[in-house]
Amino acid sequence: MTKTLTITSSYFTTAGIKSINEDSAAIEVPVDDYLLSSKGVVACVADGVSSAEAGREASSTAVSRFVEEYFRTPDTWSVSRSGEKILSTLNLRLYRKSHEFVTSTKGYLCTFSSLVIKSRTAHFFHVGDSRIYKLSVVEGNASLKQLTRDHAVMMGGEKPTLTRAIGMDNRLNIDYGSVEVRQGDQFLITSDGVHDFLTEQALTQFLTQASASDNLAKQLCDLAARAGSDDNISAAWLRVDQLPDEKLEDYHAKLTRLPFPPELNVGEKLDGFRIDKLLFASARSQLYLVTDLDSGEQYAMKTPSHNYEDDASYIDRFIQEEWIGKRIQSPYVVQVIQQKKPRNFLYYLMAYIEGEGLDEWIARNMPPSPRQAIALVKDIAEGLKAFHENETVHQDLRPANIRITADTRAIILDFGSVYVAGLAELHRPLVHTSALGTASYSDPLYIMGSNPGIQGDVYALATIAYEMFTGELPYGSAIEECRSAFDYNHLRYKSASLFNPVVPLWFDSALKKGTEFDLAQRYSTVEQLMQDLQQPNAEFLRDEPMTARSASSIAFWQILSGFWFLTLLLVIYLFSQVSGG
């Protein structure tokens, strides 16, 4: 019978004598055999920095997000790569949230130490002054080794000052290491509320004499409390009871060298999936409708194009798409399916969304119902916000990448051009030989080699909203021929009301601001754009200066203003009813 990795573990965290517990801890042992072999077991301890306003939130976020997102990383990635990518984006998220505070002494800061036991190797990630220990017993002799080093210095106070923490800087410097695992090895992760009050000798004695149980970590925390700990107290403990039969050192290398699938025809089978239909094909990828022969479920399978079989950067980006899709959990973004069985080829699965492309919907519904159109724009905005909350920018939002379901909901489908903040310095830089996205909907800054970040998605959303209401583009079709700042300077925004008289002044002004070429004039976030699209901005309702030349002209403008007021009320009603169709 094939042996699998077997772990006994426990974790515990308590406020101790303090009123608030700013520590967080977790251990996740997958029950799914495939996840256990491909991803392993994860344990984490984080200690919120007590001088920071949001230390408790930072430690809780760091632990929960790391555990959750680690198991969503592609099984084609190494442990080190998965951890570094997750922690880099997580650090940037907390760092940006820290800037919500007006004083530099406050922020979302925490230490972080995590252990991943996969196959016969233990991998660790560490920043701050929490610690990871390994206890091995060889020929009856117990040896406790501290795997991490404290990132702290004495600066005259009673306690050391942290030199590194999650959320402290926009660029994370984290320690990574790995050690071989033997059966019977024990691993311990502690916050300073434990190891500042228990010597290594005391820890060794406890681990060698205590009987394994579900509350061993609690017993250790209780021991630290009795030793006089005046801090939050946390510990995570793991013992390796059984190792897999064979070493899997080459497992990752094997997966990253997965061959591209052959050209697939209807009725053929691949890794237990039957090909039902070719949904889409381009020079870069193919999308098939497939059926899982075990469960009967239908999925969309995306496969890479053989045109890029020798392109390492393309392969890297294709694999990253799956990871990004697993991180983003939103009803307005297509779900990437967690792989439950080994792959023999490079591909990934997504939920199959029935419906039509937004480009088809626009062509079929011109002019649209304002209420239905703004409801779809709101769905797309919610999908983009899910990207942005995960420190990612879509970069290629266009009608063809948005699916409209039978019940008239909008779902974003594609991840191929997504940019992940904080990852540019990790691993191989992604070099794009051509601009990402589509010229009609992409921020001109992309075309000129810059990255406008979230504001690039704002531009795309405003452009799509404009087209949904008018059937045209804000700057006309000439924008597709532009390649330089000189070209764009010759373009002028065309009022949406020229193509659809239902569009009111304030709505058109919001679209214009959303598609401004100058970032200083454009909305900074999707939320700001949606606020002005759904509720009239007073700045957009101001009348232009006018000199009255006669009583008759004054009367004329009074009548016209009254008509405009009634029209405004009607349009506000239409645009504010965002539910239903």
From TrEMBL:
Pfam families: Pkinase, PP2C_2
Listed transmembrane segments: 555-575
Domain PPM-type phosphatase: from-to ranges: 8-240
InterPro entries in UniProt: Kinase-like_dom_sf, PPM-type-like_dom_sf, PPM-type_phosphatase-like_dom, Prot_kinase_dom
Origin superkingdom: Bacteria
Keywords in alphabetical order: ATP-binding, Kinase, Membrane, Nucleotide-binding, Transferase, Transmembrane, Transmembrane helix
Domain Protein kinase per the UniProt entry, residue ranges: 273-541
Ligase as UniProt keyword: no
Keyword set includes Secreted: no
Name of the protein described by the UniProt record: Protein phosphatase 2C domain-containing protein
Provenance organism: Simiduia curdlanivorans
